[in-house]
Amino acid sequence: MPRIADYVVISDKLFELSKLKDGGFQAERQFHLGPDVHLGSQSILAFVLYVFDGAKNLAVRVKINGSTEYTATVTFNGSGARFNSIHEVVSGGVLVHGTNTITFNATDGVGKYGFGDVVLFCQRDI
Questions:
Q1: What are the residue boundaries of the structural domains of the chain, listed by start?
Q2: What confidence category does residue 94 fall into, taking pLDDT thresholds of 50, 70 and 90?
Q3: What is the DSSP string of 38-50?
Q4: Which among 25, 77, 98, 123 is placed 20 to 30 Å from 92, CA to CA?
Q5: Are 11 and 62 within 8 A, CB to CB?
Q6: CB contact set of 56 (below 8 Å; sequence gap of 6+)
Q7: Mean pLDDT in the chain?
Q8: For the domain with range 3-125, which CATH number is right: 1.10.3730.10, 3.20.20.140, 2.60.120.260, 3.30.499.10?
Q9: What mean pLDDT is predicted for residues 9-21?
Q10: What's the pTM value of the predicted model, to 2 decimals?
Q11: Tell me, what's the pLDDT at 4?
C-alpha cells in the first residue's frame, strides 16, 4: 500500500504551563488521528519552546500517550527572551487511532516558559 507524509497541527498558539500541586508545571493537549495513519512508523514531533526574560534553568519532559518522547535540561542565563524550535522523533507504536494526548511538563526552572506551534508529522496509508 502506498504511503505519504502528512502532518497534524496540535496547537498553533502559545500556551504556558499550569502549576501543579507538587510544584511542577504542566499543559496537556489532545489531537485526533484517523484510521489511515500508519502507527508502526516513526513520526516527528515539532514545537517551539519560548523562554521569557528572566527565566533560568528548565527541565522539560514531553509525553505522548504516557510515553516519554523528549527530555532536556536547558540552561539559560536569565537575560533576554528567546525561542527555540525543537524536533523529536516519536517511536513507532506510541500513537493510536482516535484521540491522543500530549503532555508538556517542567519539573525545574525559574521564570516563565511557554510552548507553541506544536505539529506532528506522520505517515498515512493511501
A1: 3-125
A2: very high
A3: -TTS-EEEEEEEE
A4: 25
A5: no
A6: 75, 76, 77, 78, 109, 110, 111
A7: 86
A8: 2.60.120.260
A9: 82
A10: 0.86
A11: 95
**Are 94 and 103 in contact, with CB atoms under 8 Å apart?**
no
List of residues 6+ apart from 90 with CB closer than 8 A: 42, 43, 44, 45, 64, 69, 120
| 62, 88 contact by CB (below 8 A) | yes
Spatial distance between the Cα atoms of 113 and 124, rounded to a whole number of angstroms: 33
User: Is residue 88 scored above 70 in pLDDT?
Assistant: yes
For residue 31, give the C-alpha cell.
Answer: 489531537
User: Which residues are within 8 A (CB) of 85 and not within 5 positions of it... i.e. 6 or more apart?
Assistant: 46, 47, 48, 117
pLDDT at 17: 74
**Which residues have C-beta within 8 Å of that of residue 102, sequence separation ≥ 6?**
10, 28, 29, 30, 31, 45, 62, 63, 64, 118
